[in-house]
Every structure is written in C-alpha cells, then in structure tokens.
Amino acid sequence: MTEVKSWTTRRDAKRERLAHAGSLLDGKFAQTEDVVALLEHLIKPGDKVVLEGDNQKQASFLSQALVRVDQARVHDLHMIMSSVSRPEHLDLFEKGIAKKLDFSFAGPQSTRISQMISDHKLEVGDIHTYLELFARLFIDLIPNVVLVAADKVDRDGNLYTGFNTEETPTIVEAAAFKDGIVIVQANEIVDKVPRVDIPADWVDVVIPADEPYQLEALFTRDPQNITELQILMGMMAIRGIYEKHNVQSVNHGIGFNTAAIELLLPTYGEKLGLKGKIVPNWELNPTPTLIPAIESGWVKSIHSFGGEVGMEKYIAARPDVFFVGPDGTMRSNRALGQVAGQYAVDMFIGSTLQIDQFGNSSTVTSGRLSGFGGAPNMGSNPTGRRHSTPAWQSLRPAGDPLGKGQKLVVQMVETFGANKKPVFVDHLDAEEVQKEAGLANVPVMIYSEDTTHIVTEEGIAYLYKTDSMAERKAAIEAIAGVTPMGLRSNAQQLADLRARGIVALPEDLGVKRGQAKRSLLAAQSLQDIVEWSKGLYNPPAKFRSWS
Amino acid sequence: MKNSFVELNARQRAFALVDAGTGRELVGALDYMISPHLMPQGIVPESDDGVVLVKGKVADKNVVIISIEGKFQGGGIGEVSGAKIVAALEQALHDNENGIEVYPVIILDTGGVRLQEANYGLLSISEIHNMVVALKKYVPVIGLVPGKVGSFGGMSITAAILSYLITTNRARVALNGPEVIEQEAGVREFDSSDKDLIWNTLGTQQRVQTGIADEIVADDVTALKDALTAAILEKKEAHRTEKVDFFLSLLDKVDFSKPLNPQEYRKLYRENVAQPHQIAEARSTDQAGTPSRGRAWFEALTGIKNAQTNVSTVLDATVDGKTYIAIVPDANNNLFPRVKNGEVGLKEGFAVAAVVNRVVAEDADKAEKRPIVLVVDVPSQAYGYKEELMGIHIALASSAAAYAKARQAGHPVISFIPGDAVSGGFLAHGLQSNRMIALADESITIQAMSKASAARITQRTIAELEEATKHVPAMAYDIFNYQKLGALYKLVEGIASNDPSPANVAQIEKLIDEAITSAQDDRTLHFRYENPVAKASGRKATLAMRQAVADQW
Amino acid sequence: MEKLTFEFKNSQKVTKAVHVGVVASGDLEVLVYPTDKQVTSLEITTGSDGFKEVWGNVLQRFFDRYPLLADFKINDFGATPGVVNLRLTQAMEALKDEE
Q: Closest Cα to residue A329, out of A348, A342, A313, A345?
C-alpha cells in the first residue's frame, strides 16, 4: 500500500493559519490595533505576498503594519507588487522581512530601488508590465497571502472598492480560488455596501484601517502649465495622425502633451470639422482635461484603469460616458483596462524621456529604475489582434497578400527636455541601467519596431512608412531638431523625406506655428475645467489657484 | 468662450484695456532701458524691466495704463521699473494740474520689492504712494489685480491707497506672503502648504467681503474693460486709507490671542461700526517703557520722560511747534503678540494715521504748517495670520498716505533715523518724508526684507546673501551703503544710535531745523533724485527713465 | 548667467524693429533692430550657462531658412531650443506683418 496523497495541502494550511489567528478574529473581522499580530499569525517565512499598491491607490495601512512585524517570525518574503511607491515598501527589504521582489513600476522609489539592487539588498525576480504581473499571479506567482484595500466593507465581508477598484479583484481572485489568504484593510465598515465589487466569499479577514488608504491624484494636469510647443505638437498630431488615420479609439499616456490634445479637440478639432468623426471611444483614466471634450459631445465612452481624485461627482453624473454601477459610482478595472488598451484601441499616444537613434524609447534614466507600468502594453502592436478598423488598416504594408494592419503607437516629445538635455540620444541610459542592475534585458519602454510615429515640435516622422533601418534613422534625425542626432540630418534629406510623405513639417500639415497659442485651449486653468464640469469636478486642494 | 485677461502678458493687457487703435506705448521694449543692477548679480534682465506704459483712451477719456509683468522676476519693483511707474504717474499729475484730465490705471501683478535691488524698490514704492495720493485730488487712480501673482509686499500698500480695486478670483492681495509669515513666525502661525487656507484668507472672494478689494469680475478681457470703464466714468473711490476709526474700532473687538477664521472675520467686519478714536499726546509717567533707540531719542527730543500715550506702541508729542512721532516696542504687548519688538502692526499703522490726520486737520486753516518729525526705529512690519486676514497693508497704507497728504498740504515731514528702517515698517513710517537724517552707526539696518526671509525667497544661505549684498548698495543692509543711493539728507557721523546725550540731541535738533528750512517750499520727494549723490550715481538710472518718459509723454 | 555673441552673414535686410516674448521662466524675449552693417549680430544674455554650441546650432538652422540681416538682442530665462526657435519664428512673422 502506498500512502494516500493529500490534494488539499494548501487548503489545510490556510485553515490552520486562520485557526491560529482565531483569537484575533471575530468572524472575519479583526481589530485595528491587532494588525501587526494578525500579520505575524497569518504570514509565514518565504510566503509569496501580494501587497496592493499601484500608482494611485495604496494599501498603506497594511504596508505600514507589515514593516513592523517581528523579523524573527516573518522573513524572506517574496513580494509581488504592481508598484513600489512608498518608503516602507523598500524598508521591508532593508529589515529582512522580505527578500525577493517581482514588480512593475517604481516611479517614486526609482532611485532607491536602483541603489538597493546594486547593493544586493533585494533580489529582483523581474520587472513586468502590469498585465504580465497580473497574469503570473495565475501561473507561477500564485500568492499565499494578499493584502488589499477597500473603501467600504459590510458586516458579511462584501467589499465596495468603487472608483478605485483598479486591480483589487484580480489580486483577490488569484488568492481566493487557490487557497491563499485575503486580508482587506477597510476605510469604513458599513451595514450595507453601495454595491458588491468583491463578494464576501472571496474574503478571509477584514481590518478597519486607522486612516483611509493613500490615494494620489496622479492623472490631473493643470492646464495653466501647458506650453505653446505642446499646443503646436498637439495641433500637428490632430491633423497629421488623428485626422489622417481616422482614429476612432485611443489611449492617452499621461502628460501635458496629451492633455493639450484633449483641450484642443473642442477648439481646434472643432474648427477642422472633426467632431463626430474621430476618437469617440477611449481607454483612459478619468483625466480632468478631457471634460471640455466630453461636454462638447466628442466622447462616447471612456473605460478606466483607475479613478481620479476629484472626478467622483462628475463621473457619477455622466454614466453614458463612464463605466458606472447601478449604485451611481464609477467602477474601474486595471486588468481589463490593460487588455482593452492593448487589443481594442486604434492608437496609443504618449511621451517619453529618451528616444534612441533607432526609435527605441525609455523613461529609465541613469540611476533610476522606474519600471514599466502599463506603457509597454499600450505602446505595442498586439500581434494576436484579428479585428480590423480603418486606422489599423491604414498602416497595412502594401504588396503583401497576408499583410495586416498595425496599431498606431505614437511618441510625442519636445527635442530637448525641460532640463535642456536632448531627448534624442544615440544610446539610451537604460543600457547602462541594465548593466548596473544586472537585468536580463535592457529596460526599453517601447521598442522601435512598435513605434509607428514620432511627433516633435519640428514635425512628424511616419516611421511605419520606412523600408529600412537606415531610412528609419534618417526620418528620426529629420525631426530631432538641433540635438546631436538631429544635426546629422541635412536639407536635402529632409526634402526627400517630405516628398515621400515620411516626414511632415507643420506647413505640410496646414498647421501655422503662430496659431499655437494658449488661447486655443478649451480650458486654460483647472478653474475653467470646474466651470466646464458645471461645478461637478472638485480638484484637490493642492491644485487650488483661485478663490 | 471667454477671452482670458490673466493669460495675457503685461503689454497685451495694457493694449487690451484701451480702445482699439488708441494705444501708444512709452519707453517700450525697443528702447531697451534695462535694470543696471540685475546682470552684475547674474540675473537676466528684460528690455522693459517688467513695466509697460501705454497711453490711450477708454470711453473717450485719456488714460495711462501702467502694467506690471508678473512673469518677469515675480513682478518685483526695481529702480528702473519703479522709476517708470513714478514718472508716468508724475506726468499724469502734471497734466491733471494743467487741466488735462488723465486717468492712471495700474495693473498690479507683483510680489512687491524686487529683492535684487531691494533698496531701490522700497524707495520707488514710497514714491508711487506719494504720486497716487497726489493724483487722487484730481482723478481716481484705478487698480486691476488680475492674478496670477496678485499684489504683495509694498505693492499691496499701493493697492490699498489706490482709489478702486478690480480683481479676478485668480488673485491674492496681502502684505506678507504665507511663506514669509511661516519663515518669520512659524508654521503654526501660517501653514504655507495649505492652499485652501491661503486662498480662503488672501483670495479676492474673501477680500471683497472685507474692504480690501472692491470688485471681482470674471477673467475675461471684456469684463475687466467694462469694470474699468465704469470705475472711470463713475469716478469710483473706496477711501480705503481714510477709515482709521472704523479699523481701530474693529481692532477693539478682535482677540489676538484666539484663532479667527475668514468667515468669523467677515461677520465681525460686517457688523463693525466706526467709533471715534483719539490718540492722546504723550506724557511723562513713572513707568519706563520697553527700551529702544527710538524711544530713547523720542524722549530726549521731546523732553518727555517715560513717555506714554493711550497706545502702548505709538508716541506722539508736539514740542516747540514740531510734532514728533515714534513707533516703539512693547515687550508686554499682550493684545498683539506679533507686535512686541517695535514692528509696525495694524494698531500702529492706524494710530499713526490718526495722529497725522489730526495734525493736518488742526493746521488746515493755518498758513504755516507744523513740521512733523518721525523718529524711525522699525525693525519690520508685523508677521501674523490675523494681521494678514484683517489687511495689515491697509494699516500701513493709512499712515503712509497720511504722511504723504501732510507733506503735500505743506507740512515739512522729516525723518530722523537712529534705529532700523526695514520693509513695510519703513514705508509706513519714514519713507514719505522728503528729508531723511540718519546716524552713521553700523548697528542700523535698512532693508526691504529680513535676511532670513530674503535668503529663503532667493534660495541662498544668509552667509551667501550677506556676501552678495556687502558691495551692492542696491540691496545692502547698512546705512553707509544706503547713503550711496542719495536717499539721505544727512548721514551724521560721530553719534552713536544709543547715545541721545544732550550734546548729541542739540546737534540733531539743529539738523532737523535745517532740514525743515530746506523742505520749506518742497512738497515733493524730488530731493531724492536731485541731490549730488543721486545725480552722480545713486539714481542715475531713475533720472534717465524720468527723462525718457517725459520726452515720450 | 552667460553673455554670448554671434555673427552671421545674412542677406535679407530688416526695415523695422520688432519685439516678441517675455523673460519668464523657460521663456525669452527677442528684439530685432535694423542695421547698416553687413553682418547680422546677436547679443544673447542667458540664464543657463554652457549652451553656446546649442545656441549656435539653433541660430544656424533658423538663419539658413530666414537669412535676416539685423541686430538681435535676446534675453533668455532657460528656454529650450524648441521655444527659442518658436520665438525667433514669431519675430520673423512680426517683421512680415509690418512690411
């Protein structure tokens, strides 16, 4: 006789841990002050732990507790985090509570994480896009414990995650159906949640937080900081890309460049007669700068990865446009948003810090390992795409019977950054960072092969039209201004590229430089946007510049 | 869509206000009269030094628009830009005196004094105050505060003296910015990171409810022009600096030891009724006041021992036909915790104004006007949240305007400076005199801003600031450098500031009498430009600008 | 702060003086004066040190396209080459408007 193999080891382990923590629990509910003891009971050395935190929402109460656990009891954790945002996220590694890290984005902590990797204070599994990291939660990074945040929790443990649902359901699902433990910090315990975003069955432990989870207004761009050059580039993009390719669906990367486009649609776009003809459908966080376009009837639908502080009332009042539950509040979903942004939009347009001679781009600059977030998913051509749209087809190469369309991936940059450093460089800083951090690949954000257009204040390079790398390089040089790369271009090359439609200057697009004035923006301040929203948008105090 | 006025630059604003086709710019960018003080300090200049003058018509009336560029050096006033404003106002005054009606309009978008040439900025601003007071006898002088900078520092005092203030809700008006108050009085006094608090306190929505601004209009060119046209045609005048009794009565009701929020203050302001306030003449008492150079010299010059009035920080006395006025410290000033070291606060500004107004009224029918002698020892203005909430700049403006009126009415106004003369305190009590006598004493500080605040605002250490200013009269902190500007009537050698001995007092009295004689037929501040030091070096750029404006007027 | 001077051999005589721009953060002003000289001269005062070569390149490109013969004064408070080019172009357009 052979020994009977148990097929419920994970379930048994989970049951045992919850039983062990029994004295701290009343049903699913624990006391705020017991949080550290609770984590010490429920987490074991070496566990794979997901700590919720993206670039907006942070399970800050739980992260502050985790860093206070007894390292003798809880150590060598394998942390899985979308975003390394808060100082204690890295303190975990300094203290030996955690050892290994798989992550996507480390914007606010990019310098420190870079240093800690070279000091061998943390071991990096890999750097991912959001979607990749979510995917691995179901394959080879299945969590033992997940630590997440909810707005409201009812007495049964049903969660309301509301506007900032973001990635909570994805994380919880990976644990709840594979016998991981789901621990939720709650802003508020209520008798009845406005709607159930995550059912109580999926939740093991609820603990009221001492203060609401951290939430950053990351996607708010104050129009008063939009420059004339950004407006010029926006005008070129609208004429030379949106209109030319008949773009119907789009994801805007965050930044003042794309904010300028959003604010030009109801003015410049309207004058061009494009209303109703371009970009009705959006995958986008609810950026306040899109309000004038929405109010002017440009926008049919917006699906969002996350919420945005101050947009709550406005969104609730515009359910035809946003995804809003029957309770009247928005629901976001990062995983589905990433899928939509990758597969269902005609175009991604965003900004970057460096573009190399071949057209590869990265936001990783020396000494700063910022990771990827979602940009590589948005900014790539999904080769698995099969459905067709006019914009997608417009990039189909001629002469190939099996050819297909391509997603428009547009980079929009001023040739020199605000620090007067050239954005166009022969080699990305990311190449150095790869060596310093011992990464398997150079952390390129968007590869040349995926980049179809580059817009600068000089003009547009239609890279998808180039036939060779040499031509691609020449097209980039032609719009790289007086950067060292741009100086390699000469008048004759430029004339040739213009004649063949590979490069367009403002005059080729019918864009007058003198028209690029701030008065062309539909809103010149956040206060104007409040007015556009009919008082429904309520900007955070830090943006206040009026009485 | 609205046509934003705030978005426009200074030149566009000026031309946007005058009737189409009527605008003519004076001493414009192409004349290239730049500040001589910026490049030596490593600062890039601007061709118009940040002030644009445009003559034109509004509703068929002659106007001169004086537009300050808030985007260049925060709209700070330096020698050239200050002289440009003063010269334009003076030309307008001259026209009005000669029966040609000209309405001056000032677009304020300024942090006040330009720190790199702080001493000139302070002098210029006092000269602006003088001109506005003189012009108001003929026409209203309208102010526009559109934002985004607003109107701060010495130029908030200007804002208070102006006839009528039109604003948008993008602007703030205050003497001290929140950063400066936090620097001087701590984060608990005013948290400069709390934007809601800042806008609710200093923003124009609050200010129009509490007499600091007169009107808010939408940020739209037409709306601002309409408001300006109405103000000119109706000759609007708020009489802001003539409400001394009203504010002294209001001060009686505010407990400065307790918090006061903007809403509560609105209510107090609304319900306040002006009661007459008399500031008594100083008399001798048994109780010595808090010692200071100013008090010592006041008592020595007037012969009043342990002088006291019914305001613990203001001394005034008429002796031998001269009225002496001093602002002094009161270490036990429990009513105003931010005024213990001789600062000029709300009470001080209004009380001094009351004294000067009384003197002018008493002499109104006399052919010979009584000299007024200011004993100047003011370390600064008061830095406090409630001071800003109530509009301390109106208090300072009230005393500055009172001195200017007295001088313009024929009172010789003489400053004797045995102590510090700093910033808003000096504007309120000192800079409206046309003869200034100072002691050549190293302990005397003259400046527009305390070193700590100046260092913070210009992002330098105090040591760096001291090194940078040591050899630059434009922003020096000592009386010797100050003299190089030509601003002083006399710098008196050999008398220590803390030594009012009978012999020293006799010498100073003699100099004061000489100054009075010298000022007898001079109701202007021209002495500052016309003395040999000023002509040779101190005010060369000022004089060049005055000439240019006169030529192009 | 740095003072730079440049000369270019240009051909298109400018007949009027113009001014554009404000010395605001990240911005600049450009003044163009007619000249009797045979070369275009530029006096540049810039708040960002160490960019002489970049200035030279921006100006070369601009004058290749619009060979304005004039005296230029430029006061720059940290403008990027893109903004410099924009203001130069605006100055050129202002000259056209007045002709």
A: A313
